[in-house]
Amino acid sequence: MIKENQHMFTDKEDIKENYIVSSLVRGLKILSTFTVKRPALKVSEIAELAELDQATVFRFVYTLERLGYLVREEDTKRYRQGVRMLTLSLPAREGITVREVALQYMAELSKKTNETVKLSILDRTDVVMVAVVEVPDKLVYRTPIGHRSPVYCTAAGKAILAFQPVETWDAVIPLIDFTPRTEFTITDPQKFRECLMETREQGYATQDGEQILGLSALAAPIFDNNGKVAGGINISGLTIHFLEQGKPKGLIDELVNCAKTISEKLGYAPELFE
After folding, report:
1. H/E element, 60
2. At 21, which CATH number?
3. How far is CA 78 from CA 57, 191, 223, in A?
4. Exposed (0-12), middle (13-18) or buried (19+): which is 175, by Cβ within 10 Å?
5. Model confidence pLDDT, tens digit, residues 92-103
6. What's the domain count of the chain?
């Protein structure tokens, strides 16, 4: 069920209730019942999902249809979102880039964890770093913007590739030159597939001395409004820092939450793809 004000108001302490237009809230709840896996709905189904009575839903649906935001299938009596819904969202979509959105939250994550935070995107068999927030005066392995790293031995590479369709795995993995960078590097394609599956299941990727001995990293994927992987953020630093008591669990939680926040700011709504 779509609960009252769900996904619409997150900072309730900043909201003056008397400013809220209740009819607009109901209309948006109705539009939010449509998802990628529920593209067409009857009035009764919309009413159940939005937790509104059918008479109210019918009036809203009729209005939205007349305005072009919904269309009715005559044969099934179901409604779908109209083309006008797409044009309504285009300005927001065109104005968002991963790097612009991510930098603020990367800085917050770096401050919380006292570790370097990087943003990378996938380019065939490599990941390319497009943004970085470093800890001042802290000894780390520094890489410049635009630096390319192999997808198979980096946390960011694993995190980004793991959440791609398996067909993408099939296309990318045969192209990878699994050259061992250290004694811990994964060099077997099948083991790399297993690593990607594990990454997908747990929601984040790890790397412990696979690219450079003594350096470790954690990474999580970022999704765009279409549910596709837009990139990945990772926390990286000296392995000795990652082995401090209780730190890995705390780093993982902070990292995953940061990736989720950036994804939401990009327009990603996981419930639309359930």
Report:
1. helix 54-67
2. 1.10.10.10
3. 13, 47, 30
4. exposed
5. 554 458 888 899
6. 2
> Are 220 and 204 contacting, i.e. CB atoms less than 8 angstroms apart?
yes
Domain boundary among 56, 90, 124: 90
Residue 135 belongs to domain spanning: 98-273
Spatial distance between the Cα atoms of 192 and 158, rounded to a whole number of angstroms: 9
Indicate if 135 and 207 belong to the same structural domain: yes
Confirm if 230 and 265 have CB atoms less than 8 A apart.
no
66-86 confidence digits (pLDDT tens): 988 999 998 899 999 887 786
Residue 7 falls inside a structural domain: no
Torsion of CA 55, 57, 59, 61, to 10 degrees: -150
Say whether both 53 and 105 belong to one domain: no
Side-chain half-sphere exposure of 2, counting CA atoms within 13 A: 25
Task: Answer yes or no: are the C-beta atoms of 100 and 205 closer than 8 Å.
Answer: no
| pTM for this prediction | 0.65
106 and 76 inside one domain: no
Task: Give the CATH number for residue 117.
Answer: 3.30.450.40
Distance of alpha carbon 118 from alpha carbon 116, whole angstroms: 7
Rounded Cα distance, 155 and 132, in Å: 15
| Tokens 């044009």 found at | 87
Neighbours of 83 (CB within 10 A): 10
DSSP letter at 165 equals: -
